[in-house]
Design brief:
Elements lengths: L14 E5 L2 E2 L5 E3 L7 E3 L7 E8 L7 E8 L27 H15 L6 E2 L14 E9 L3 E7 L6 E3 L8 H17 L13 E8 L5 E7 L6 H11 L3 E8 L29 E5 L2 E9 L2 E8 L8 H16 L5 E5 L5 H9 L4 E6 L2 H13 L7 E5 L2 H4 L12 E5 L8 H10 L3 E6 L2 H12 L3 E9 L9 E8 L1
Parallel strand pairs: 4-6, 7-22, 12-13, 17-18, 17-20, 18-19, 20-21
Antiparallel strand pairs: 1-5, 2-3, 3-4, 5-6, 8-9, 8-11, 9-10, 11-12, 13-14, 15-16, 21-23, 22-23
């Protein structure tokens, strides 16, 4: 079939000559000329011309998708991807775009998304390193015809597992540990889990590295195979950096990472469930992370397997620094840390305002236990730092705090879906003088900031941070003041 132009309807298998005009939020090139609806093409940059073949046409009004058959031109900002898995993996969708161009694109994305606010969006803050930055890694276990077992990631829009041994974003130490897990598990005859038949035991591996170089390994299995002890022995023997190994039992069908043990825990917060069924196989159930929030000041955090902490510790430290500096100007007496996780943000603000009292709220009981333990280790008693397990909308109204005080500040760091209206209402009723809103989704952030603006809060500025170089993901910090 010859390449066509001026088409009136797209169909799967159709060949087209196209030119991308922009990048979608997914990182795919967007074609809008001579097509009836937007056409998304992975690995095609703005201004590049290519012959493509339509691979998917949405029946529900969404964009169509196509794959490149031949690229005819090359954009000035195109670079050779540093990872051999680029393309099939889909994890780093813009690895073919020069890093400075990535930052500019992410800044434009945030400005465009937040345009209805009319707020100043500052330039996107670069990550200290565009590679070897991901300190929290989740890998899927899959069978292999030769090596019996491999660790990898799901390919885009499928459940096919691709091996990603050459991944450039994951910390190299974690990938070395993962390789040993795969080799030893295969040698010991531990069977990979098969989704269709629900047979086999080994499902996922989660790895975390902290600043000291210590590593925690989480083994997600349907049961506890008799070979697990030998696997742990071999792992610790070959990698002295491994200081914690935890077994999570997951017997649920489908591809859920960790089981949800309470109906109140949304799927997005699946790791925040109870750790009651987890089993410690080696070392302690947690690691200690140190993040520098000022040149002369660090915050020490305890992180367990189910506790959330940003995957890029260097960029997380930059964000913690900014939030601590912004809120320090208010000289707060009370700091409310909503969706606090292990309270890295709240502890950072408290560190530079040592006379204040911190109140942290988080759904996950494991993260709350970590936050309490870290506060105690830092010498903070209940008069200085208090943490509550539960939802923001349930817990916040019950706290005895001075409503409308100029010495009351709040931090919000919600999951990707943003805040519930009930949570925002509880926050508005408390009426803090200043709010620092940290978000990984400009879409939900806009919705929440608009809600707060209608109730008297002015967003002064927003700073995007490149938490995940090579990917479309963006982290943002917004500063709001009560009128």
């Amino acid at each position: 079939m010859k390449a066509e132009s001026g088409v009136t309807k797209l169909r799967v298998g159709q060949q087209l000559k196209v030119t991308a005009s922009q990048l979608a939020q997914s990182g795919a090139g967007v074609v809008t000329h001579h097509v009836p609806s937007p056409l998304h093409v992975r690995n095609l940059l703005p201004s590049e011309e290519a012959i493509v073949v339509v691979s998917h046409v949405s029946r529900h009004g969404g964009p169509a998708h196509a794959v490149i058959e031949r690229r005819n031109t090359c954009a000035q900002d195109r670079v050779v991807p540093s990872c051999s898995s680029f393309g099939p993996c889909g994890g780093c969708a813009v690895l073919h775009l020069a890093y400075e161009a990535q930052l500019a694109w992410k800044g434009r994305t945030v400005r465009d998304e937040l345009a209805p606010l009319g707020v100043e969006v500052r330039p996107c803050v670069a990550a200290p390193s565009a590679f070897d930055y991901r300190a929290r890694v989740k890998l899927v276990v899959a069978s292999h015809p030769v090596r019996k077992l491999i660790l990898g990631a799901f390919a885009p829009r499928s459940h096919n597992v691709l091996e990603i041994a050459g991944c450039q974003t994951n910390r190299r130490r974690l990938m070395d540990v993962a390789k040993t897990v795969a080799v030893q598990a295969a040698a010991l005859g531990i069977s990979p889990y098969e989704e269709t038949s629900a047979l086999g035991s080994f499902r996922y591996v989660l790895l975390r590295e902290v600043a000291s170089g210590a590593v925690q390994v989480s083994l997600v299995m349907t049961d506890k195979p008799k070979q697990v002890s030998a696997l742990v022995d071999a792992l610790v023997r070959e990698h002295p950096c491994v200081q914690s190994v935890v077994l999570h039992r997951n017997t649920s069908r489908g591809n859920a990472l960790l089981p949800v043990r309470a109906a109140s825990v949304p799927d997005e917060d699946i790791e925040l469930g109870s750790s009651d069924g987890d089993e410690l196989l080696y070392g302690q159930a947690f690691l200690w992370e140190d993040l520098r929030v000022r040149d002369d000041l660090s915050v020490r955090l305890r992180v367990s397997a189910r506790s959330f902490l940003q995957v890029n510790r260097e960029v997380a430290a930059l964000i913690y620094r900014e939030v601590a500096a912004l809120l320090a100007h208010s000289d707060p007496d009370h700091i409310v840390d909503l969706y606090c996780g292990v309270s890295g943000l709240g502890r950072s603000v408290l560190a530079v305002n040592p006379r204040a009292t911190l109140y942290g709220i988080e759904l996950g009981p494991t993260a709350i236990a970590d936050a309490e333990a870290a506060a105690q280790e830092a010498g903070l008693d209940a008069s200085r730092a208090r943490f509550f397990a539960g939802t923001v909308e349930d817990v916040l109204p019950k706290l005895s705090l001075p409503t409308g005080s100029d010495k009351l500040v709040a931090i919000i760091n919600p999951p990707r879906r943003g805040c519930t209206e009930s949570a925002l209402t509880a926050l508005h009723n408390l009426s803090p003088a200043v709010i620092a809103y940290v978000s990984c989704s400009p879409v939900s952030m806009l919705r929440d900031l608009m809600w707060l603006r209608e109730r008297g809060y002015v967003t002064q500025h927003v700073t995007p941070y490149d938490m995940h170089p090579g990917t479309p993901h963006i982290e943002c910090v917004a500063l709001l003041r009560r009128q």
